[in-house]
Amino acid sequence: MIRTQLWASGGGVQSAAIAALIVMGELRPDLAVIVDTGREQSTTWSYMDAVIAPALSAVGVTLHRIYKSQFEERDLYGGVDNSTLLLPAFSTRSGEVGKLSSWCSSYWKREVIKRWANRHHVELVDTWLGISVDEIGRVQKPRSHKWRTRYPLIERGMNRGDCVALVKRMGWPDPPRSSCYMCPNHTAQEWRDIRDNKPADWQAAIAFERDLHRRDPHAFLHHDCVPLDQADLDERNGVLFAHCDSGMCIV
């Protein structure tokens, strides 16, 4: 049985490089999707709408924007009793600063893509992820016969620098880093960029954290475990415990 080639765009640099390879005719997906979690930074969609989607459309490829809210009822909390915070927030619940596990990519992206694909009656799937050779540690082992993963950039021996160079050769603007505006894995530089250059996203992150505190006053977006608008965003005060191995967010 033929396997459906499904490109799962993350909206970042490596995904822009995969889009370039598609436009150049070196790759051809059967389906192409990007998940809208409802919390992506605004620059992601500006770039998708202005650069990537039109370029793909010109070569007959539709990048489907699928909405997490249509395929997953659970949002911030999941697990057996729907009480596990899915966000990799910093927590003081134990009396010390700790980092919660990251389940959001699975709930908000990976499973959403699977449900969308099932709705399109796919049988066997190779999901393309934009992970480059310098991120080899993020490569996933196959989870099932139906759902396998391909890494087109690794197959071509491309690193992040190669991806940036390819995007420049296409004449496209530099793609933004793709992530949710309230991701606890942001570095100090990324938080400053949101604060200084994306005021709507910054205010949304502050409001998000305030809402989160109503249910869990021990959960914070910054490792200092103070409200985000009070956090020290100096470069010397860098992220602690930053880690994400889902392969679904910042590619």
Protein model, in words:
It is a single chain. The strands form 3 sheets. A 5-stranded parallel sheet has the order 3-2-1-8-9, with helices on both faces. A 3-stranded antiparallel sheet has the order 7-6-10. The chain contains 8 helices and 10 strands. It has helices spanning 13-23, 42-58, 68-71, 104-119, 152-155, 160-169, 188-197, 199-215; strands at 4-9, 31-36, 63-67, 77-78, 84-85, 90-91, 98-99, 125-128, 147-150, 219-220. The chain folds into 2 domains: 4-78 and 102-178, HUPs (Rossmann fold, 3-Layer(aba) Sandwich); 181-243, no CATH class. The chain has 251 residues and is of the alpha/beta class. Strand 2 (31-36), helix 2 and strand 3 form a beta-alpha-beta unit. It is globular and about 50 Å long. 35% of the residues lie in helices and 14% in strands. The longest helix has 17 residues, at 42-58.
Task: Give a summary of the structure in a few sentences.
The protein is built from 8 helices and 10 strands. With 251 residues, it is α/β, with parallel strands linked by helices.
Any descriptors?
five-stranded parallel sheet, three-stranded antiparallel sheet, single chain, 10 strands, globular, Rossmann fold, alpha/beta, 251 residues
User: What helical percentage do the residues reach?
Assistant: 25-40%
Task: Quote the beta fraction.
Answer: 5-15%
What ranges have pLDDT less than 50 throughout 5 or more consecutive residues? none
Structural category: alpha/beta
Terminal CA distance reads 29 Å
Describe the main β-sheet briefly: 5 strands, parallel
Number of domains: 2
What is the H-and-E element order? Answer: EHEHEHEEEEHEEHHHHE
Q: In order across it, which strands form the biggest sheet?
A: 3-2-1-8-9
CATH topology value of the largest domain: Rossmann fold
Number of helices: 8
For the record, the CATH architecture of the largest domain stands as 3-Layer(aba) Sandwich
Q: What is the top-level CATH class of the largest domain?
A: Alpha Beta
The count of strands amounts to: 10
Which word captures the global form? globular
